[in-house]
Amino acid sequence: MIVAGFGFRAAAQAASLRDAYDAARADRVAGCFSTLTNKAGHAGFQELAEMLGSEMCAVSLGDMQDVITPTQSAASQRAYGVGSVAEAAALAAAGPNAKLLAPRVVSADGLATCALAEGGNG
Fold it and tell me: Does pTM top 0.85 for this prediction?
């Protein structure tokens, strides 16, 4: 299954998240939208998942701590101890042996990021 991982600021709306998702996905469709557990209740995140009929799969910060991401954001590193929340959320939710299909992409307004990963079983 393909997982779309999201990182976003509190001010992000569903349109910001959709912009980042559309830019990251190319022609792929994610079966699951993932983010940090404490961000999963965000109205824009929930709205986008509902709009696109995607399952939401939140991951804990602990599950993301050991995930190595190709992107290294200083802000993400300071706030969460991970290089990219979007990439780490996608990889953690996709499970063991997951691979990143697309590195994080930033929405045009700079409020959201999205990355895609696929589980080791394809």
Answer: yes
Q: What is the CATH number of the domain that holds 8?
A: 3.30.420.180
* Crossing angle of the two packed helices 43-52 and 14-25, in degrees rounded to 10: 50
Structural domain of residue 89, as residue ranges?
2-118
Q: Which residues of the chain have pLDDT under 50?
A: 122
Evaluate whether 111 touches 16 at the Cβ level (below 8 Å): yes
10 Å CB burial of residue 121 (0-12, 13-18, 19+) is exposed
3-state secondary structure 28-97: CCCCEEECEHHHCCCHHHHHHHHHHCCEECCECHHHHCCCCCCCCCHHHHHHHCCCCHHHHHHHHHHCCC
- Count up the domains in the chain and report the number: 1
